[in-house]
Design brief:
Layout lengths: L1 E12 L2 E13 L4 E6 L5 H8 L7 E6 L2 E2 L5 H11 E4 L11 H11 L4 H14 L15 H13 L5 E5 L7 H18 L2 E5 L11 E6 L2 E7 L4
The structure holds adenosine-5'-triphosphate and magnesium ion (MG).
Adenosine-5'-triphosphate binds next to strand 1, strand 2 and helix 1.
């Protein structure tokens, strides 16, 4: 699904260049459940943002299902993001004035589908993440873990090929974290969506089929976990 070749990202801070990604090459297979791990500042979020087309690398190429996507025009990248990529962020990023159901179907509405279709699908997805009883709740009426599962349902509304999750459990307690990770695992297994997540917690390795370890902007190790 992803073929990453010689990817680098350099931030210029004053006169000092920071090499957040340093000539990284690797592949991710379709259907993978992959985790990016490494110390704070090692470049995990930077890598995820480049793959999610939320940022432009300084050099290198990203092939998504054979298509080189780094040099596409911004409108083409925006369409790819909306149609094929889903995002889950640490801070949920739900709209406070919309209900859980409305938050979930909003990207479907933006894509211009039929309203009965995306509304029905929004309900089904909230059922799928175990929140069928919460569809009319506003974000402030939901726990952190529930809000994150709404965000996962939202990421799925346009049937993406891949979900990117940057430390989805960073703001959650242990029990909610487990529930969120198990939701991602079951989506990967049952809906067959490719999942790429970032975590600090070594314990989260158990959820990933492939673990990429980063240090100083490089991938320094890759561990497979065939039992997942
Ligand atoms: N917008 C930016 N401008 C300048 N430097 C940046 C920017 N974003 C990240 N960096 C730097 O790039 C490096 C990698 O940052 P990144 O956020 O990818 O790390 P991370 O592995 O996700 O860390 P954390 O675990 O703390 O989230 C860091 O040294 C950081 O200071
Ligand atoms: Mg980060």
């Amino acid at each position: 699904m992803f073929d990453i070749r010689n990817l680098s990202k350099v931030y210029i801070m004053g006169d000092v260049p920071v090499k957040a990604l340093d000539d990284v090459s690797f592949t991710i297979d379709t259907g993978d459940m992959a985790c990016i791990m490494g110390k704070s500042g090692s470049g995990k979020s930077t890598l995820l943002r480049q793959l999610g087309l939320l940022d432009q690398p300084t050099s290198g190429e990203i092939y998504l299902d054979g298509q080189e996507v780094t040099k596409l025009a911004e409108t083409a990248r925006a369409t790819l993001r909306l149609q094929h990529l889903g995002y889950v962020f640490q801070e949920y990023a739900l709209l406070a004035e919309l209900t859980a159901h409305e938050n979930v179907y909003l990207p479907g509405m933006m894509l211009g589908g039929k309203d009965t279709d995306y509304k029905r699908k929004g309900k089904e997805l909230l059922d799928l993440v175990g929140l069928g009883q919460r569809i009319h709740h506003y974000p402030r009426e939901l726990s952190g873990g529930e809000q994150q599962r709404v965000a996962i349902a939202r990421a799925l509304i346009n049937s993406p090929r891949v979900i990117f999750a940057d430390e989805p459990c960073a703001n959650l307690d242990t029990i909610s974290s487990k529930r969120v990770m198990e939701t991602l695992v079951s989506l990967n297994r049952d809906v067959k969506v490719t999942v790429l997540f970032v975590s600090h917690d070594p314990d989260d390795k158990k959820y990933a089929r492939n673990v990429l370890i980063m240090s100083d902007g490089k991938i320094v190790d890759r561990v497979s976990n065939p039992n997942v």
